[in-house]
Design brief:
The protein is mainly α. The chain contains 3 helices and no strands.
Amino acid sequence: MKQIKKALPYITVSAMPFLAFAQGTGGVNNIVTNLSNLVNRIVPILLVIGTIVFLWGVIMFLTAGADEEKRANARSLMIYGLVGLFVMVAAWGIVGLLVGFTGTGNVPIPTNIGGINPI
């Protein structure tokens, strides 16, 4: 064990050049591009989920009848769905602004969501 403790600093120092060669060339543009790619893949999925939550709340509200507790739960579900949609569109817009400010590319408008093209 003593020999390992003595040799460990030498092994660590001799391995440092390998760590230096492993570093990639990146910067703010690379980070913004990766963030843009991540958001462009996740936002359409989350928009669909938010729409489903909102529509499920509408269906629950319509089928609740006179039960005030069910109507309140459905109303809160609709609000959560709308807030989720707003947050996703806002996040997508913020990433679009970052990409525009840094000049790393353009953020496409997600028009073909889940195979449905609304345009």
